[in-house]
Design goal:
By secondary structure, this protein is an alpha/beta fold. It has two domains: 213 residues, P-loop containing nucleotide triphosphate hydrolases (Rossmann fold, 3-Layer(aba) Sandwich); 83 residues. Helices cover 32% and strands 20% of the residues. Strand 9, helix 6 and strand 10 form a beta-alpha-beta unit. The termini are far apart.
Length: 313
């Protein structure tokens, strides 16, 4: 099959690139503050952004200031920007905007994460409550930036997955050896041998009031996860519709969704938090987004050990 040589070639390129960084033959840039990276092995959603939210909420509760560095995937702009929580998703990317709004922490986007980190540290130097660490969103493959702690989220599909271009894996499972912590679904307990595993559970929390006969839609790489999560909390949409990952919604898309609602007798709309930031209240109504909560087993112990490892505790 043609997929075999292409997958083999991609794997060789990934291994060669990692070897260059492992042997320090490529320049790795280091920021002044410690960097905690949250990433994954595969293309698409594995819960990175909800995990950053979980970690960020815990840091806020501990009164430990932090900032967030992100590429800002899907944005129309270029260069380094500080995210304005009141600004548009097109300028910053949907996930950075969601993080800025939900965590009330400084978020910086930039193609070169080191440059974004420098801007974050310049901002911190003038802040009355300066950040003590950086959270690097989707950083596992961005090896040009030194990180002090690598957290990698593992999805069920990763265990049987294939490398790009025909599979979804950006790196082989052996790359988990670089991780300081692997976050895995709790139902995989006993199946994994990595000594540094944090088990997690996901749950959706639906805001009240919520439509009882919704049209549900999303722009995710793995929309079936969202449909299943809705089913798990007893939500049965009258119609579901999936767009591409990081989709930019147009007037035509809104008209399509309104037409589906009318056709199926819906009384509102459900979407994801990262899709919600792309809409204003006048476009679809009522439009609500369940919050995806990540619950890490023994979270306090896990997160405190992380802080100790990076020198914040």
């Amino acid at each position: 099959m043609i997929s075999d040589p292409l997958t083999w070639l991609f794997g060789q390129i990934v291994r060669a690139r990692n070897a260059i960084y492992d042997t320090e033959r490529a320049t790795i840039y280091r920021l002044r503050l410690p960097v905690v990276s949250v990433g994954n092995l595969s293309v698409g959603g594995s819960g990175k952004t909800p995990f950053v939210q979980t970690l960020g909420r815990w840091l806020n509760a501990q009164n430990i200031p932090f900032d967030i560095i992100s590429r800002g995937y899907g944005r129309k702009s270029r260069g380094v920007l500080r995210v304005d929580p009141a600004g548009p998703a097109d300028l910053y990317g949907d996930e950075p905007l969601l993080l800025a709004r939900s965590l009330k922490a400084p978020v910086f986007v930039g193609e070169k994460r080191y440059d974004a980190g420098l801007a974050a540290e310049e901002f911190a130097s003038k802040s009355p409550r300066p950040a003590r660490l950086h959270l690097l969103d989707d950083g596992f493959q961005h090896r040009r930036l030194h990180r002090d702690f690598d957290i990698v989220l593992l999805a069920h599909s990763d265990l049987q997955g294939s490398l790009l271009p025909f599979g979804r894996l950006r790196e082989p499972l052996s790359s988990l050896g670089r991780a300081h912590a692997v976050v895995a679904p709790a139902d995989l307990a006993g199946l994994l041998t990595n000594p540094n595993i944090w088990y997690m559970r996901r749950r959706l929390v639906l805001p009240a009031p919520a439509p009882t006969r919704p049209v549900a839609f999303c722009g995710l790489a793995r929309p079936r996860q969202f449909w299943q999560s809705l089913a798990d909390i007893g939500i049965s949409p009258v119609r579901t519709f999936s767009f591409g990952d990081h989709h930019r919604y147009s007037a035509k898309d809104i008209a399509l969704l309104q037409g589906l609602a009318k056709q199926h007798g819906a009384n509102g709309f459900l979407t994801t938090e990262k899709d919600l930031v792309k809409f204003d209240s006048s476009q679809l109504s009522p439009l609500v987004a369940p919050a995806l909560m990540i619950e890490v087993e023994d979270a306090g112990t896990r997160f405190n050990s992380m802080l100790t490892a990076v020198g914040v505790r």
